[in-house]
Predict the structure.
Amino acid sequence: MKRKPIVFICILLSFTIIFTACAPKATAIPPLSAAFSELQGTVMAKQTGQADFTRVSNGFILEQNGEIQTGDDGRVRLDLSTGTIIRIAPSSLFSLISNTPTGNSLASSFKLDIGRIWIVLTSGSANVQTPSGVASVLGSYLMVEVVEGGGIKLTCLEGSCNIKNESGDFPLVTGQSAFVLNAQTPPFVQQMSEQEVQEWLNANPEATLVVPSLTLPAPSATTESTATSEPTATDVPSTATSAPTATNIPPTATSYVPAPPPTKKKRPPVDTPTATTDPTQGYGYTISNVLFNNTSNNITVAPGAQFSVDLDYQIWSAVECPSCIDQLAIGLEGSGVYCAYNGIPGIYPGASGHDTNSLTAPTTPGTYSIGVHYDLQYSCNNALLNYGSSNTTIGTITVSAP
C-alpha cells in the first residue's frame, strides 16, 4: 500500500518533464545593428561603453546603443539588421536604441538629437525620439529633421507616419509634411512641396519607386489661400531665401500690416493700410514707443558706442495659419541684429510685449537707420540671416566724428 503514492509521484514528475520539454520557448529578440556604406566626408561613431567618437569607414558595424556623428561634409547609409535603410545627413547626431517585439514584427527605436535622417522601412515599424516628440513610420518612407532649438520637421513621402508629443498623437499620410515647434505644441501639417519631394529623390534612389505615384494637390481655382500652405519648404533652416519680400512690410513701423492669407506664391505688394483693412484676417505687427538710450528714436552716439533699444510690439498671424512661427528682427546692418520676438503669436490680437536690448554703433561717422524685419521662419537665426532684405526704419542714430 505504501508504494502507490510513490508510483503516483513518479507519474506526475514524468508528465511535468514532458510538458516542460514541449512548451514553446521564448523567442530571442535580435539586437539592433547597422552596417555602414555610401560614406562621404567625416563620419564618427562610438559603440556603447566607449567614451570617445572615432572616425569610421565603409563596412563598419554599429552595435545596439551605438552613436553616429557626421561632420559638415559627412553622410552615410545604414543597412539595419532588420533590413531597413537609414541615410544620415551632414551635421547629425544619431543613436541606435533597440528592437522591441510588436505582434509578429519588430519596432526599431532610434534617437536623433540634431540633423536629418531618411528612413526607408522594409519591415516592422520605426520610432525616432527627438527633443519635440516621437516620430514614427509604419510604412514606409519618413524624413525626420531636428532643427535649431529642438523643433522638428517631418516629411511622409509614402505610407503611414505619426508624431506624438505632450500635446497629442497626430497621424500623417502619404505626401504630408509637419513641423513641431516643441514638445508641448501640436504640429503644423501641410502638403509636401515639390522641393521636399526632390530632396527625397536627391538623397534616396529608392524614392523613385514611390514618387511617380505621389500626386501633390494643385492650388484651388477659386482661392489660393489654404490653412496648410505656409510655412513653405523654403522656411526650413537649411535655406535663407524664404523671407517675405520688402513689399510685405508697412511703410511705417508704427502701423499694422494686415496681409493676404498665406499662399504658395509670393504675397502681393502691400501699400499703406487703409481704414477698410481688417487686422483680424491678415497677419501683421506694430512697433511703438521706440527709445534709444531712453531718450528718443533719433540720437547721436560716439563711434563704436553701445546703445540701448527699448520698444513695444504686437504681432499676429493670419486666420489661415494660426500656427505660423513669426519673428521680429531688430538691427543695425553691419553692427548686429537680434530677435525682439520669435514664436507662435496666434491670430489677432496675437502676442504683445516689451523688448529691451542693445546694439553697437558703427565706427564710421554718419547717420544710420535702425530697422525692423518681419519674417516667417522656423528659427530666429534664419530670420536674422534675412535681415536687410525687407527692413522698415523705426529710428536713426548719428555717429559723431571722433
